[in-house]
Amino acid sequence: MVEQGETTGRKRGYAGTWPPRAAAPAGGFAPSRPALWRPVIETVRQWARAEAGAGRLLPWVPIAFGTGIALYFAAGHEPVLPVAAAVAAGLCMVAVLLRRQKFFPVAVMIAAVAAGFAVATWKTARIAHGVLARPMFSVSLTGFVETRDIRERTDRFVLRVVSMESARGTIKLERVRLSVRKGTAPAVGSFVELKARLLPPPAPLRPGSYDFGRDMFFAGIGASGFVMGAIKTAEPPDGGGFRLRYAAFMQGLRDAIDARIRTTLEGDKRAIATALLTGRRDAISPPVNDAMFVSGLGHVLSISGYHMAVVAGVVFFAVRALLALFPALTVGYAIKKWSAAAAFVAAAFYLLLSGAEVATQRSFFMTAVVLIAVMVDRRAVTFRTLAVAAMVVLTVAPEALVHPSFQRSRPRYVIVASATRKSL
C-alpha cells in the first residue's frame, strides 16, 4: 500500500512503491505505469533499424515485389497497364531521390510492391490471347505440333493453330491442347489437319482452390479437348519459324536419349532414368509410381532444384578435377571459374533438355546466380544471392508466385554454392 508522509532528508512524496515511480509534486498524483505496447513498439523499431542496415535491406525487396504480384492476382478486375507502370516508375524515382533520407527503406518497399504489381500486369498484357468460353464440337483445325507428351493411358500434344473453322462461331485461338489415343500423337514440328472437340480451360473445383486454367493461360493455351477421327499430315504453308525447329530438335534429342536408355535398362529402371534425364514420366508403372508418392519420394521424379544442383555440382567437380591434373593451368589460370562456366553451360542444357518447366526454370536461375557469383569473385552463399535469384524468377515468371512448387521450394542451390566455395 502506498502512503503519503515525510521521510528524513527527503522531500515530501510517496513511499513504499517498488519499482520506484517517477517523482510527483506534493499533493499530486503519481504518474501511471508505462503502457504495455510502448516496449513492443520500441522493440519493433530496433528490429526495423537492424533490417534496414547496410546489406540487410536487399533480401526484403523480393518479398515486397512478391507482395505486389499477390495483390495483382487478388484484384477484382484487370488493372490498367499504363497506370500501373506510371505509378511504379514514379515510386521508384521517389525511392532514388530519398536514398539519403531515413525514409529510404520504406520508400524502397513501397516501390517494390508497385513494381511487382506492374510486372504482373505487363506479363498478362504481353501474352494476352483468346480463351474459349463454351464447348465447341467438330472443330476443324490445322496447325503445327509444338510439344508432345506421352502419358500412361493417352498421349497429349499442343497445336499452334493456323486455321480454325466451326459452324458455331468464328473465335480464333492461338494454341490448343489435345488428347489422342496412346501411340498416335503426331511428331513435333509436323503440320497436321484434324477435327476436335474443344472445351474451355478448367475452372477451380471450389472457391480458393488451385486454378489450372490460369496455368493454361500463361502457357498460351486457350482450350483443351479431344481429337475426333484421324490426324492427317499435310504440307505446311511456311517453315514454322525458329521456335518450332528448336522444339523439333529437342524432342528428337529426347527420343534418342530414351532409345539409348532402352538398350541398357529395362522396366521401371529405364522409366525412372528417362524421367530424371528428359522429364518424361509416362513409362513408370502404376505400382512404382504409387509407392513413390506414398513414401514421400514422388517429388524426386519432378526435375527441380535437387536435380539441377546435382548436375551442376558433378560437372563442376569433374571439370575442375581434370584441369587440376595440369600444373601449368592450376598455377597460371583460374580453373575454378572455368569449372563454374562449364557447370553453367551444363545446367542450361539440362534445363532445355528437360522441357524448361516452371520449377526447372526457377532452379536454373538459382543455380546460375551462384555460378555467376563464383565467376565474378563474389561470395556465393549470401542472402543477397537468394534475393537476386528470387527477383529474377518473379520478374521472368510472376505467375510462379501462386504455383505450389514455388511456395514449397527450398534453396537447394546452396548445395552447389557450398561445394564451389571449397577447394579440391
Explain how this protein is built.
Helix content is about 50%, strand content about 15%. It has about 425 residues and is of the alpha+beta class. It has a five-stranded mixed barrel. The protein has a two-stranded antiparallel ribbon with strand order 1-2. The radius of gyration is 30 Å and the shape is globular. The protein starts with a strand and ends with a helix.
Figure out the total of helices.
15
Q: What is the 3D form?
A: globular
The ordered string of helix (H) and strand (E) elements is EEHHHHEEEEHEHHHHHHHHHH
Instruction: Report the β-strand fraction as a percent range.
Output: 5-15%
Strand order of the largest sheet: 3-4-5-7-6
Structurally, how many domains make up the residues?
3
Structural class: alpha+beta
Low-confidence stretches: 1-24, 410-424
- Total beta-strand segments: 7
Characterize the biggest β-sheet.
5 strands, mixed, barrel
How far the N terminus sits from the C terminus, by CA atoms, comes to: 73 Å
Helix content: 40-55%
Q: Compute the gyration radius: what is it? A: 30 Å
Mean of the pLDDT scores?
A: 80
